[in-house]
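task queued by scheduler; priority normal; single chain, no ligands, no partner chains; default sampling; output format set to C-alpha cells
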Amino acid sequence: MDRGKYLALVGGGALLGSVSTFFLLRLLQSQKRGVSQCSKNVPADLNGVEGCSISGKKNDRVVNEDLLKDEIVSEQLTRNIQFFGFESQQKVTGSYVVVIGLGGVGSHAATMLLRSGIGKLLLVDFDQVSLSSLNRHAVATRADVGISKAQCLKEYFLSVFPECQVDAKVLLYDSSTEEEILSGHPDFVLDCIDNIDTKVALLAACVRRGLKVLSATGAGARADPTRIRIADLRESTNDPLSRAVRHRLRKDHGIEGGIPVVFSLEKPKAKLLPFKGPSGEENPSDYQIIPGFRVRIIPVLGTIPAIFGQFMASYVVTELAGVHVQTEPVVNFDMDHYHTLHQRLIEHEESVYGTSTEVLIDVEEVMYIVKELWNGRSAREKHVKDVGRGMWRSVNELMLVRWDSTKPASISNLILLKFKEVDEHESRTLDDIKENEPEFYSRVTAVLKRAELDFGL
C-alpha cells in the first residue's frame, strides 16, 4: 500500500513538472519571438531611420546603494565585499555604466560588470548575433543567432542578477543618438566599437561631456594574452586602430590624450580578409549592414577579445570602488638598455663622488626603478612623449642620478633624468626644489615613497 502511494506521488510530481516545463517553455518562446521581431528588423531600420529599445521584461528600479541590504544580493557579492570592503562595494553597486558595442570584447566586459554588482547597465549595439560570432561572444548560443546582441545579453543578465537595472538599446551610436545613449550621468562609458568614425565620435563626446571612458582597440589577429596592456591612448603601439583614432582625435577634435585604452603590444598575426558573397563575388557594399562600415573580415582568436573585455571590467570596477591598481607601464627597453643605465650610474658616481661604493642597486633593480617608478622617461616629464621606437631611442639620453645627494644611490633615492637636466639638478638643494617647484617635489617624493613601501624600507 505504501509503495503504491509512493509511486502515485512520484508519477503525479513528474506529470506536474512536465506540464509546468511545457508552459514555461511556451512563455519563454513567445517572449523571444516578440523580441526577435524587433531585433531582426533592426538593420533595415538603421539604414534610414532609427533603432529601438528592447521590450519585454523591464526593470524600472532606480539604481541605489541599498542593494547590498538584500540578503541574496549580499551573499551573491560576498567575495567582492571581502575583496573591496562593504563601503567600496556599495560604490560599485550604486554605479551606472554604459557599454557600447557588445561583440567579443563588449559582451565579456558587460558580463563581468554585471557579476561584479554594477547596479545599472545600459547595453548598446545595432547588430545581431551571428554564427561566426559564437567563437568569442560571452553568452550567445545557437538559439540566439539572428537576435540582437543587446537583447541576448539582457535576457541572460536578468537571470544572473535580476536586481540590476539592465536597459538595452538596438542603436548605432552617432550624433543623433548621443543624447539618448550618454545622458543620465553614467559613472563610466566603455567603448567596445571597432569602427573608426563611430569610435572617434564617441570618445570626443565623452571628453566634451566630462564622462569617464575606457576604450578597447584592436583585439583581432592577436594570440598572446601576456602582451595586453592598459595605458593612455598616446602610449598604445603596434595597433593600426588606435593609431588612426589618435590621429583623428587630434586632427578633428584637438584631443591629444587623456583617454585610457586597452591594447596589445603584439603585432597583428593576420591581415583583414575580403568578404565574398555566396557565389564568390566580392562586392562589399552589397553586404554592409550600415553604410560606411567595413565588411572585410578580421581573423579572431576568441580568447583575446574575451581577455580584453575582462581587463576592461576589472579596471572599471576597481576604479569605481576607489581601489587604485598600478598597471604595468608600457616601456620598450630590453635588458641591454638596463645594463647600460646601470653602467652609466656607476661611472657618474665615480666621476662626482670619487667612488661607486654607494651604488646599492643591481641591474634588476635598475629595471624596477626605470620601468615601474619612472615609466621609461625623465622624472620631469609629466606626459608621454616617446612611445614605441621613440622610447627605445630615448634611452640614449637618460641616466639615473641621486635625488638627495647626501644619501646613497639606493632604490628609493634615484630618479631618471635626461643628460641636459642632470647638471641643474645636482647644483640645487632639495630645499630649493621644494620651495620653487613644490608640485615637482611632491610628485618625486611620492614616487620614491612607493619604492620604500614596495621594498619594505
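post-processing summary
- Residues 335-455 form one domain.
- The chain has 17 helices and ten strands.
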